[in-house]
């Protein structure tokens, strides 16, 4: 068994091919398909984290993770990998796909000697979005959930500007926390100035208090989670003390309840901001497809040079760094995880591009009963089913060279397909 697994493991640990160059080639290919959703001249990105339970005792990057889910069947703390990802919206804004662009492990960096105390989980996602925008000189909008509103996130985005647009290269749309407060700008003193520094911040206000003043809201139709409905909304530019800058706050009342959004662009259209945040759920669907359809996180690489750690949850402050001589080998094991997941993400992205470019062809070859068709575009699971049957058919009707006979023989040892499905050639 080990002899069969070893070449597979060596491929992902091989140092002659680079993950960075793979991501660069992949993102270039995606943009060349001209399926990117463009809103106000900007591509639409989403970022988030996901957890992958792992209990290997010699796997680098394993940390203790706190589960925020209210499901009682899940443990509060467990061991695993903490992944960060960004995705690009493709197709149409009404029915988009969240195409994976890059995935990286964002915790346990001490195992490879790259821990940076100034770097946070929030800013790591911002760096991934900025790398994509800078690599392709593509202005973008990044949508994030309520975990991300902090000063370092906004300051990092403000640090890189587009000379052509005279605006930051990446603008943010982030859901505010429920206890978020902001300040009006201080009024300039009339007449003679008094002693001391002029006031910067005016009256303090809690954002949720605006929902008690419905006369300030306007109403308009908006697409909320793929359904058109009447939305009450208002916008106001206020000073947010963590950044010391003006932030555009978009307050909305939808059928799902009230919501407050923070926008780094002071001219952001409120209805577009609401709609873009609602399609942020596509990254959650992307994680679900990676886990359950592609099995992207089913890797089992480890390194014997890693110090053994406990399978039970313990404080992440006690993580042990490998010796200096072992760092290179452990780093290759770490990269094997990211390479494995990135190749699986590319496979999922190809399924999404096929669905976006050839939906009619996919439906014409789909021969299984589907009780409910949620939208016109076929899902990734539907495309996978159709492409699997087409590839197997092409495999068995191709010329019977030596390598094809070997593949067929290995296929029949695991599964015996219906011979009548392939009538074009005899199978030997």
**Tally of helical segments:** 10
Give me the strand/helix succession. HHEEEEEHEHEEEEEEEEEHHHHHH
SSE class: alpha+beta
Report how far the terminal alpha carbons are from each other: 27 Å
Radius of gyration: 25 Å
Strand-residue proportion: 25-35%
Helix-residue proportion: 25-40%
Low-confidence runs (pLDDT<50, min 5 residues)?
1-5, 417-428
Full CATH superfamily name of the largest domain: Transposase Inhibitor Protein From Tn5, Chain A, domain 1
Average pLDDT reading? 89
Return the CATH class of the largest domain: Alpha Beta
Query: What form results from the Cα inertia axes?
Result: globular
Number of strands: 15
Q: Biggest β-sheet: count, sense, barrel?
A: 11 strands, mixed
CATH topology of the largest domain: Transposase Inhibitor Protein From Tn5, Chain A, domain 1
Count of separate structural domains: 2
Summarize the structure.
By secondary structure, the chain is α+β, with helices and mostly antiparallel strands. Helices cover 32% and strands 25% of the residues. The protein has 2 domains: 342 residues, Transposase Inhibitor Protein From Tn5, Chain A, domain 1, CATH 3.90.350.10; 50 residues, no CATH class.
What features would you describe in this structure?
The protein has 428 residues and is α+β, with helices and mostly antiparallel strands. The protein has two domains: 2-186 and 197-353, Transposase Inhibitor Protein From Tn5, Chain A, domain 1 (Alpha-Beta Complex), CATH 3.90.350; 372-421, no CATH class. Helix content is 32%, strand content 25%. It has ten helices and 15 strands. It has helices spanning 2-13, 19-32, 121-136, 151-158, 270-278, 282-292, 327-357, 359-365, 380-397, 402-414, and strands at 38-39, 42-53, 63-66, 77-91, 96-105, 140-144, 161-162, 167-168, 170-175, 181-185, 201-206, 218-224, 227-240, 245-254, 257-263. The strands form three sheets. Strands 1, 2, 3, 4, 5, 6, 9, 12, 13, 14 and 15 form an eleven-stranded mixed beta sheet that branches. Strand 13 and strand 14 form a beta hairpin. Helix 1 crosses helix 7, helix 2 packs parallel to helix 7 and helix 3 (121-136) runs parallel beside helix 4. It is globular and about 95 Å long. The protein starts with a helix and ends in a 14-residue tail after the last helix. Mean pLDDT is 89; it is low at 1-5 and 417-428.
């Amino acid at each position: 068994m080990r002899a069969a697994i070893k070449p597979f493991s060596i491929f992902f640990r091989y140092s002659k091919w680079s993950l960075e160059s793979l991501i660069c080639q992949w993102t270039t290919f995606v943009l060349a398909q001209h399926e990117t959703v463009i809103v106000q001249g900007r591509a639409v990105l989403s970022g988030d984290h996901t957890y992958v339970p792992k209990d290997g005792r010699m796997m680098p990057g394993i940390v203790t993770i706190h589960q925020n889910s209210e499901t009682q069947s899940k443990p509060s703390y467990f061991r695993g990998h903490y992944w960060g990802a960004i995705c690009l919206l493709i197709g149409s804004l009404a029915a988009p796909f969240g195409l994976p662009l890059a995935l990286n492990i964002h915790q346990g960096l001490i195992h490879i000697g790259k821990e940076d105390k100034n770097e946070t989980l929030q800013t790591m996602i911002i760096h991934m979005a900025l790398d994509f925008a800078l690599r392709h000189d593509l202005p973008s909008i990044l949508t994030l959930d309520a975990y991300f509103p902090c000063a370092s996130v906004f300051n990092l985005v403000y640090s890189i500007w587009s000379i052509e647009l005279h605006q930051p290269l990446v603008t943010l749309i982030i859901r505010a926390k429920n206890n978020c407060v902001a300040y009006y700008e201080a009024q300039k003193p009339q007449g003679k100035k008094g002693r001391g520094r002029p006031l910067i911040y005016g009256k303090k206000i809690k954002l949720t208090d605006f929902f008690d003043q419905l006369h300030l809201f306007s109403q308009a139709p908006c697409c909320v989670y793929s359904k058109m409905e009447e939305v009450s909304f208002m916008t106001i530019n206020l000073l947010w003390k963590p950044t010391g800058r003006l932030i555009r706050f978009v307050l909305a009342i939808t059928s799902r309840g009230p919501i407050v959004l923070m926008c780094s662009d002071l001219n952001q259209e409120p209805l577009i901001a609401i709609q873009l945040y609602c399609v942020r759920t596509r990254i959650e669907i992307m994680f679900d497809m990676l886990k359950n359809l592609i099995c992207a996180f089913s890797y089992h690489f480890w390194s014997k040079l890693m110090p053994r750690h406990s399978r039970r949850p313990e404080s992440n402050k006690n993580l042990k760094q490998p010796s200096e001589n072992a760092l290179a080998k452990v780093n290759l094991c770490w990269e094997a995880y990211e390479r494995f997941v990135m190749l699986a993400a590319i496979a999922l992205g190809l399924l999404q591009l096929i669905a976006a470019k050839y939906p009619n062809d996919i439906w014409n070859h789909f021969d299984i009963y589907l009780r409910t068709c949620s939208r016109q575009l076929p899902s990734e699971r539907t495309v996978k089913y159709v492409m699997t049957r087409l590839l197997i058919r092409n495999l068995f009707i191709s010329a019977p060279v030596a390598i094809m006979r070997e593949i067929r023989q290995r296929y029949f040892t695991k599964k015996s397909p219906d011979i009548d499905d392939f009538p074009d050639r005899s199978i030997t």
